[in-house]
Amino acid sequence: MNPRISLPLLALLGVVATLGVAVTVTHARRAAVAPAAPGAGAPSDVSSADGDLRLPPGARGVATEAVHAERLADRLEVPGTIEADPTRVVRVFAPVSGRLVAVRVRPADRVEQGRVVAIVASSDVAAARSAFRQAQADAQVKTQALERSRLLYDNKVVALRDYQQAQADAAMAAAALASAVERLELLGADTAGASDQVAVTAPRAGVVTDVGAAPGEYAKSLDNANPLCTIADLSVVWAVGNVYEKDLASVHAGDSADVTLAAYPGMRWRGRIAAVGSVVDTTTRTLQVRVELANAALRLKPAMFASIGVVRATRSALVVPATAVVHEDGTAWVLVQTTPGRFAHRTVTLGPWADRGRVEVTSGLVPGDTVVVEGAELLSAAGAAS
After folding, report:
1. Where do runs of H (alpha helix) occur along 113-266?
2. What are the helix (H) ranges across 155-276?
3. In terms of Cα–Cα distance, which of 41, 64, 44 is closest to 54?
4. Which among 141, 103, 135, 130 is positioned nearest to 193, based on CA atoms?
5. C-alpha angle with apex 182: 179 to 188, nearest 5 degrees?
6. Tens-digit pLDDT profile for residues 215-247
7. Among residues 76, 93, 131, 130, which one has the least CA distance to residue 220?
8. pTM score, whole prediction
9. Quick one: pLDDT band at residue 139, thresholds 50, 70, 90?
């Protein structure tokens, strides 16, 4: 070192060097954030230096919606199944014993009242028809005898006792004939026919839920017999569920209820609670609840799984469309509009699902916030790639 340079001069040179380094660093930072010249790799319009996402001019596929509070129902969901109304289910039996000649229905067939479901050949029909013809002949003879007795009595030829006896005989013959006719009608046979076959008809309209016989089998009469088929009127069905006794205070007969089924997502059937069970199941600690549902289109099938929803109370809550929420790494977030055309990620906490494809937000949003309800993932992915 030159001995002529004094210590104060060395200190001054150090300060100048330090200032030069600082100015160089400052210019470098400004160049990093300054807009690039056209054609020199300019940054995308979907992101900005402060981390917000910017909506490019003329962008499509992005829709927004304002967040507002709504009244949500606090619902009790009761699992259950669809069942046929037992008073609308008919089990069809053969009225006579005999051999099944034909079975003319299949499961799931819709039948009208009076349709022939099976034909049975039976000796009981032949015996009943024979008894009818005998009673018919006897009644004819006794009627003629009564007419002769009346003429003879009018001419003082026979005594009153003989005339009265003829009247009694004719009355008994007429009663026997009426009984024979009723027997044939009960068996489903025609008094003028000669066949030993009986046509078994449907006693009511409905859907055939089960067929328990096949042609060639021997059908018994009503005693200890299996039904030929089962017909159910499904125009009105039951949704039956089990309510825990701790929730019993929320369920009352006459309350409105909504029924949803896994078979028809997004659809609801509305009805009223027809009855609540009076006995608690000692094993499950539940009571049975029943909802009657109109089923004109027959879309509700017995044994379908169902969920019975009962409104217990209502409350105010913030809801957004489910399409606005993006689930990622175990968290949920939405894009909130900060200024017109600019959006920012915001983590939210979700509550129960509401109706019409919406979900409750318990934290992260306030009334008046504007969120992206369509295109949130695309906008976020574009910002991350820029």
Report:
1. 123-154, 160-187
2. 160-187
3. 44
4. 130
5. 145
6. 988 887 666 578 899 999 999 999 999 999 888
7. 93
8. 0.58
9. very high
